[in-house]
Amino acid sequence: MAGEKINLEFITEYLHTLFPQKDGILQEMETYAAQYAIPIVHPEVRALLEFLCKIKKPIQILEIGTAIGYSAMVFAKQLPENGKVITIERDPAMTELALKNIQKAGLQSKIRVLEGEALEVLPCLQKHFDIVFIDAAKGYYHEFFDLILPLVSDEGIIISDNVLYKGMTATDALVKRRQKTIVGRMRQYLSLLCSSPYLTTSVLPVGDGVALSYYNKSGAADKRF
Ligand SMILES: C[S@@+](CC[C@H](N)C(=O)[O-])C[C@H]1O[C@@H](n2cnc3c(N)ncnc32)[C@H](O)[C@@H]1O
Question: Does the predicted model carry a pTM greater than 0.85?
Answer without folding.
Answer: yes
